[in-house]
Amino acid sequence: MDQSTGTSQNEFYELEKPESLTKVIVASSVGTMIEWYDFYIFGSLATVIAGKFYQTGTALGDIIAWLAAFAVGFIVRPFGALFFGRIGDLIGRKYTFLITMSLMGLCTFAVGLLPTTETIGPAAGIILIVLRILQGLALGGEYGGAATYIAEHSPNGKRGYYTSFIQITATAGLFMSLGVILLTRQFTGEEAFADYGWRIPFLISIVLVAVSLYIRVSLKESPLFNKLKKEGKISKNPLKESFANKENLRMVMLALFGATMGQGVVWYTGQFYALFYLQKIFNVPLVDSNMIVGGALLVASPLFVVTGWLSDRVGRKPIILGGMLAAALTYIPIYTIMEHFRPGPEYNPYMLSFLVFIQVVYVTMVYGPIAAFLVELFPTKIRYTSMSLPYHIGNGVIGGLVPIIGLTLIEATGNHLAGLWYPIAIAAISFIVGYFFIPETRHIELDDTHL
User: Fold this and answer.
1) Residues 6+ apart with CB under 8 A from 446
2) I want to staple 441 with a disulfide (CB 3.0 to 4.6 A). Which of 68, 166, 172, 376 is the partner?
3) Rounded distance, CA 409 to CA 411, Å?
């Protein structure tokens, strides 16, 4: 453990003998990865099954309706952050993310059993939205709990490195969803996959959830939360203390406008939106597009840990803000070049994969250090609640709306590049706010002395 940046937290760990960091990271990361897998199956299968639940008269209209249902899950994530964040600050981190894990898994499994509009009419789309809402609430509570749990086990001076492992989970979950879809499609064949095979990735998730719950149930509570509990300092009203306190509310707003909303649009543009562009705008075949994005994700994923580790040495701000600035300045050139290599005379899937890889590098810069940054902004007794809200508004709502807003702009203007205006504008605003108003946090210890 690094003793050079503070000893109080490290000495407490030695006294209490908490879980090993390896077990903590594995248990938290596997569970979170599975939740992201569940969440992104919806997006990855948009072009295949949108018409089975929404029939608007046109294929594009069906996809827009599907993306709207997809977006509902993002919109409700802040409410899940408030609800489960409050529970996490009241009763503990461990039990809260056991609940969110179970809820997410059951909803995903239910989608695999859901009848389509051909069987039950418009009710299919309505039930799907209800399940998306429950999924969004669950994911709203999951990330804050897992990130807080790992951070509160991590020694000072290495928090960026250890929390960066959980940052891989979102990309890994997306990568896993693409892999399962490809394998299922290859196994069933294209016609059978479109008929019933699309259900298999949803149904498989229940097995993954069961494994994750088995791993997580043996974990102990966070040592810092236990310390507060023994001292009788647990917050009696986490919501009031998080948002009625002017200084804490100020940090919540700065975290949102100066970090998480920029991080959110960069994340979704570089991964999910890139896949959507390949499939629907550039007409890359389904298998090819999944292989292009999957290959880029696989190669770039270790950089999440690299950027987390680097943030312990040079700071969170330079890396996070650098990723936002690079994205805002280069998205138009990148997608212009991608259009040149789309299917046709100049089709080059390797070049397309390289261009997606560049975008994923930006993702690793903004996302790798973000968990450490957020947990360091807030005191232990309200950390779960305080960090979860700006993360899920920025990442879930503002970031999650990238596809639907982008597609709307493309439809309105007839310009393929218009779909990039929204993420570019948000990333640029977040860079400016973050540069001038966000404090550096890497030297902060996870106690209550900084507020």
Assistant:
1) 9, 151, 152, 156, 159, 224, 375, 376, 380, 383
2) 376
3) 5
**Residues in CB range of 72: below 8 A, 6 or more apart:** 129, 132, 133, 136
Token couple for 75: 């919109």
pLDDT digits (tens, 9 = 90+) for 2-18: 434 444 555 444 434 44
Half-sphere exposure of 319 (CA within 13 A, CB side): 30
Cα separation, 306 vs 436, whole angstroms: 25
pTM: 0.81
Q: Is the dihedral of CA 440, 443, 446, 451 positive or negative?
A: negative
Please give the domain boundaries of the chain with CATH numbers for all domains.
18-437 (1.20.1250.20)
DSSP string, 252-269: HHHHIIIIIHHHHHHHHI
The span from the CA of 115 to the CA of 28, in Å, is 33
Tokens of 272: 């999910």
